[in-house]
Design a protein that fits this description.
- It is built from 11 helices and 10 strands.
- It is an alpha/beta fold.
- Strand 9 and strand 10 form a beta hairpin.
- Helix 7 runs parallel beside helix 8.
- The protein is globular and about 50 Å long.
Length: 279
């Protein structure tokens, strides 16, 4: 579904952020990008949706060659790519519902969104998504009144209401505690399975990547140095990606922490909420 062919990114300083990236991501696959800071993980994600312009190479989403699009054609292609940000990127003074519905801006036009006159089907979908992510009771809360985990859930719902084919997720757990990080990764994983969405997740936590991704790609200095399953990611490979570290002891500690977290995690109660007509 998504194909990157010989993608390179070189900045004006001469620094190579990406070097000869070749990747194919099929529908429904959750892929984690791991690697040290500065390895090119965020740059790769931003090249896919053209927030960063690749220097050379091609990127295809289905039949569309994203690297050749501009103007309205590029805006249309971006609708098919939902972005989830590390810092949430919510409008603090707007309510949860309004932030979720802002994911439809590319479809409804400026004036309808400015007047908050969204189509009934969009409002109904927003209600469904809020229930699915466990926040139906927070629909009228301002975004600045939410916890970090709640904000990230709203960001996920906003991305999904675009009805994307691909999720681009940039460090979704970097600002969260371990328990909330696992809940967010589990939610992303479940939603991708339910909707047959492909996802690229830039993540620093190797244990989370191994637990929730189908495939792991390791970057170092802008190059792919590992591409395989979580089970194939051993201590030797981690040393290739990150450098020397006591990986065996680190992974054992991560496993113990995951066990403690699992015994403490409660399943959120699902609530039903009827859709209204206006926001």
């Amino acid at each position: 579904m998504l194909t990157l062919s010989q993608v390179n990114k070189r900045y004006s300083t001469g620094e190579h952020a990406l070097v000869g990236i070749n990747l194919t991501l099929p529908r429904g696959q959750v892929m984690a990008l791991i690697g040290p800071s500065g390895a090119g993980k965020s740059t790769l994600i931003r090249c896919v949706n053209r927030l960063v312009e690749p220097t050379s190479g091609s990127i295809h989403l289905g039949e569309a060659e994203l690297t050749r699009l501009s103007g309205s054609a590029l805006r249309g292609a971006r609708r098919a790519m939902g972005m989830i940000f590390q810092e949430y990127a919510l409008v603090e003074r707007l309510t949860v519902m309004e932030n979720v519905l802002s994911g439809r801006l590319g479809y409804v036009g400026f004036w309808r969104s400015f007047l908050r006159r969204y189509p009934q089907e969009d409002i109904a979908e927003a209600f469904r998504l809020l229930e699915r992510i466990g926040l139906p009771q927070a629909m009228d809360k301002r975004a600045d009144a939410l916890s970090g985990g709640q904000r990230q859930r709203v960001g996920i719902a906003r991305a999904l209401i675009q009805r994307p084919r691909l999720l681009l997720v940039d460090e979704p757990t970097a600002s969260l505690d371990p328990k909330t990080s696992r809940q967010i990764m589990r939610l992303i994983r479940e939603l991708c399975a339910e909707r047959e969405l492909a996802a690229i997740i830039n993540i620093h936590d190797v244990a989370l990547a191994q637990q929730f991704a189908d495939r792991i790609v390791g970057l170092r200095a802008g190059q792919i140095v590992f591409d395989g399953t979580p089970q194939e990611l051993d201590a030797k490979t981690l040393t290739t990606i990150y450098g020397e570290e006591e990986w065996e002891s680190t992974q054992a500690q991560d496993g113990e922490a995951e066990h403690r977290t699992a015994t403490q995690t409660a399943v959120p109660q699902k609530l039903s909420l009827a859709a209204g007509g206006t926001v």
